[in-house]
Amino acid sequence: MTWETTALVIAVTAPFVTAVLIFALGERRDAARSGVNLAGAALTVAAVVTAAGAAVAGAPDAYPTAGIALLDIGFGLRADLLGVLFAVIAGVLWLITTVYAIGYMSRASDRARFFGFFSVCVGSAIGIALSANLLTFFIFYETLTLATYPLVVHSGTPAALKGGRTYLTYALPAGGALAVGVVWLNLLTGPVEFAAGGSLDPALATTHPGSLVAIFALLMLGLGVKAALFPLHGWLPAAMVAPAPVSALLHAVAVVKAGVFGIARVVLEVYGPLGPELGVTQALAVVAGFTIIFGSVRALAQDDFKKRLAFSTVAQLSYITLGVALASPIAVAGGIAHLAHHAAMKITMFFTAGAVAEEVKAYRVSEFDGLGRRMPLTMAAFSLAAIGIVGVPPVAGFTSKWLLGIGSIDAGSGWVIAVLGISSVLNAAYFFPIIHRAWFRTPKPEWAHGPAAGRPEGDMRMIVPLVITAAIGLAMGVFAGMDLSPASWAQTIAGWEFPW
Amino acid sequence: MAEWIARQLPALVVLVPFTAAPLAYLLGTGFGRQIALISALLSQPLAILLAVTVVREGELRYEVGGWGGPLGIDLVVDGFTAVMVLVTTVVGLFVTVYALGYFGNRERYRFFWPLWLFLWGSLHALFLSGDIFNLYVCLELVSMSAVALVGLTLRREALVAAMRYMLAAILGSLFYLLGVALIYGAFGSVDMQTLREVVRSDTTGQAALALMTVGLVLKTALFPLHFWLPPAHSNAPSPVSAVLSALVVKGSFYILVRLWVDVAEPMAFPGVSTVLGVLGSTAIIWGSIQAFRQQRLKMLVAYSTVAQIGYLFLLFPLVTGGGQAAADAWMGGIFHAVSHALAKSAMFLAAGTVLARFGHDRIDGLGGLSRRAPVTAMAFGLAGVTMMGLPPSGGFVAKWQMIRASIESGEWWWAAVVVTGGLLAAAYVFRVVGPFFGREVDDLDDADLNAGPSPWTMESAALVLAIGALVLGIVGQPLLDLIMVSAPALVAGVTP
Asked: At what angle do helices B394-408 and B323-358 cross, to 10 degrees?
């Protein structure tokens, strides 16, 4: 086994091993658990970065791979450019979220269970990123479905159990549809490996067009739930009963992006040119476009802060789906770049929601008047991220929207420009009032003089991570032109995806 | 020496538990426990070696006493046999470990050890039998020891359930024996290898097969002949419940598969396999709904067995067409038997821990279990993943193969049943597991007589079995290969 292959295997297994150790340590040994968790996350980041380096050096035909025999396909891992991008996002944000979560959960119960399943989720997300074929992808995808459940219901309240049931009601049938789609596709074409530019035999478009369209629909049903495509998005706002680190890392990054990432794999690396030829990607683009407007409109009406963020996520995820579905390298680059950009910005916002809820017990937007005085760093970070999502340069969101816009013209789908325009206005309409309230409204008397003298504005284990992620979001935009920025990385990937 | 042992393997896997059983009886409880553990540990390398030898050398034949067929008793080992022996041995070990803690040194349960070892040996003998009369004998030995084990506690409900179980078992055996007699009369042999050549689809042959099928279906508790199973499996002591659901029902299923797919394949008519498939599908749906409606955990798990048995019967319609679909169905069906054995024993053992520790198994009273008994809650939940057939569990690989087979054969409705069954399983599993994460309820106070936490051996035996079922979906390929070794002609056409 070469060094790169070892790194690939460690990247996927380290979080699972971390989970086992956390479960074994049990509830009482907090220090040991935190140590193991941080060490596991750090090891994962190191391994993922090593694998990413190998992927960049090896692209496009010498990616590190590993696997064992399973069924006719094999259980296979591969560090390719698209995969490592998602894996690096998940790994790095896991490390940051772990610090945040140790602070956030310090007074909560069932911590071993929480951190254990959290690690399983991250391991599954990285497994999803580094899967070499659809079978492996599916195995990790469903593992993620199940491992998320204990986190959604973590608090054990009736509301949490109900949220968990809603989540399963969407996710499990989706898994069934996905399973049938994957088996069927395998039968039609033989083992389905992911390959830049699509892995299906172009002749199939004429011999089996009906089956291919049906399979695509099944796959999108399965992936669309996690990607929160309308009308499969209903579980996401309901899942906001979960603790803040879950909403932040899983429901803004790992779980939901596993869905859009899967869509990217299927559209770009399985169907490839067959997608536009069969007309299925155009249909997907329309659904995504509608979801963008729909999610933004729904976000407007939410007073509950986390719910507003959740509907914003619904809309933003569809930017990625839309970019992937438009058959243009530039739009695809925009979509994939947004995968990274939205991750950094939205995780900042959910971190904010958790920090604010813990520190000043404010859960609704209407309770945020003057919050900027009380928690200046937190609200500054939030404002930066919000501006980014609206698409104001130089924060990262601008870059992805810019690429998406140019790409849509390139793809001959001018209507996308209108969607992007309306959405930006709506984004501003649901985020700017929060910023306005926090900074320009009269604060409650006890907030007027800021945090108590000599005390920080909150638990620094929570504040520092959210400042870091906000800075990452800003850096991704400012340095978008540099070689290893997500935007350039996405453009390189998009270049490989379109040999046709 | 090694060479000699290798040749004696088929006999040894049967002899070890059969020798241990009378010893355990004669030496009493204290020694019985140790003998059972020694026998269980000794069986592990034997079963593994047997599987390895089969993979290396193909089908094995062993003539007991050197007589050979048609006079003597032949033991025959192919991939199917080796897999069943292996899973019995592995589940057996962990049930034994669990039972050590569960029964303790209590004198009134002294008969558990000899009966259990006897049942274990009979199951091995059944899987290894080369002729249909020996299969009958072994089936009877299995049933009788199983019935005795169900009534072990001498509690009223247990005795009633055991009696009902016994009547069903005897009736099933009689039907089967009648079929054997007809076959022997018509074709002059009971040896399966010989029968494969001579059996014909005439009236006698069909009548014999029909009788045997009805008897075996009753013993396997296929819907609508499942009525005896839930009370027997849920009222038995929990280690016994585990063995019954995980292994014993698979004994009669094993014979059914041997008969239809292996021996009588020339006379197979699609009508019967479709009927078996439809009954299996109904069992999946009906059993899952019944499971969902139960108030007691062990009853829920027992009805889950009724449902999961249904999947096994999808094998019949799917192999009928031959070709790759048959091979996939063969692998899927048997792999399902294996992963279900691991997961279902884990579930019953976990339920048993709950019952022993808290004095009840009311599902409504299990809120907050993940805090009070995290290991047991985890074991039950992970076993549930296999019941739902979700990856990475072994149940997933089994269902994957079944869905494959049904799309290949163009009979997509079986795939619809498989997916629906998985969702229904999710409904009954999460009905139990959901509240584990909820607020604690008062019902989880340790029962007076068993105060204090359960022995760690009990909790971890269930967890290890559940983890085994869970990772089978990733590391199960060697097992799939083993299943295909010397597989019947009908399914051996193509191997992936």
From this structure: 150
Q: How many helices (H) and strands (E) does chain B have?
A: 20, 2
CA distance B168 to B139: 13
Q: Which two tokens stand for residue B469?
A: 């079922």
C-alpha to C-alpha distance for A156 and A154, rounded to whole angstroms: 5
Tens digit of each residue's pLDDT (9 = 90 or more) over B426-485: 999 999 999 998 887 766 665 544 545 678 889 999 999 999 999 998 898 999 999 999
What single-letter DSSP state applies at residue B78? -
Per-residue DSSP letters for B8-63?
HHHHHHHHHHHHHHHHHHHHHHHHHHHHHHHHHHHHHHHHHHHHHHHHHH-SEEEE
Q: In the predicted model, is pLDDT for residue B495 greater than 70?
A: no
Helices A415-440 and A305-325: angle between axes, nearest 10 degrees: 160
What are the backbone dihedrals phi and psi of residue B191, each rounded to the nearest 5 degrees, phi first? -75, 130
pLDDT of residue B365: 87
Residue B55 and residue A334: Cα distance in Å, rounded? Answer: 52
Query: Residue B131 forms beta bridges with which residues?
Result: B191
Q: How many helices (H) and strands (E) does chain A have?
A: 21, 2
> Measured in whole angstroms, how far is the alpha carbon of residue A279 from the centre of its chain?
27
- Buried/exposed A386-399: b ≥16 CB within 10 Å, e otherwise: bbbbbbbeebbbbb
Alpha-carbon distance values, A210 to A191, A216, B461 (Å): 20, 10, 49
What is the helix (H) or strand (E) element at residue A79, kind and residue range? none
Domain range annotation of chain A: 279-500
**A2-33: pLDDT as tens digits:** 888 899 999 999 999 999 999 999 888 889 99
Q: What is the pLDDT of residue B359?
A: 87
A133, A149, A172, A241, best to mutate vs chain B, most B CBs in 10 Å: A172
Does B399 lie at the interface with A, CB-CB under 8 angstroms?
A: yes
Contacts of B378 (CB under 8 A, 6+ apart): A23, B370, B463, B466
Phi, psi of A229 (to 5 degrees): -70, 140
Helix (H, G, I), strand (E, B), or coil: what is residue A383? helix
CB contact under 8 A, A71 and B392: no
- For the segment B365-393, what is each residue's pLDDT rounded down to a tens digit? 888 888 888 999 999 999 999 999 998 99
Is the Cβ pair A70, B438 closer than 8 Å? no
Q: How far apart are CA B302 and CA B231, in angstroms?
A: 8
CB-CB contact of B394 with B339 (8 Å): yes
- Pick the residue of B429, B437, B474, B480 with the most A CBs within 10 A to test the interface with A by mutation: B437
Cβ–Cβ under 8 Å, residues B271 and B213:
no
Structure tokens at B116: 């259990």
Task: Say yes or no to pLDDT of A500 above 70.
Answer: no
**B244 Cβ under 8 Å from any chain A Cβ:** no
Q: Are B189 and B195 in contact (CB under 8 A)?
A: yes
> And the tokens for B120?
């274990």
Q: Are strands B60-63 and A75-78 parallel, antiparallel or unpaired?
A: unpaired
The tally of CA atoms less than 13 A away on the side-chain side of residue A386 is: 27
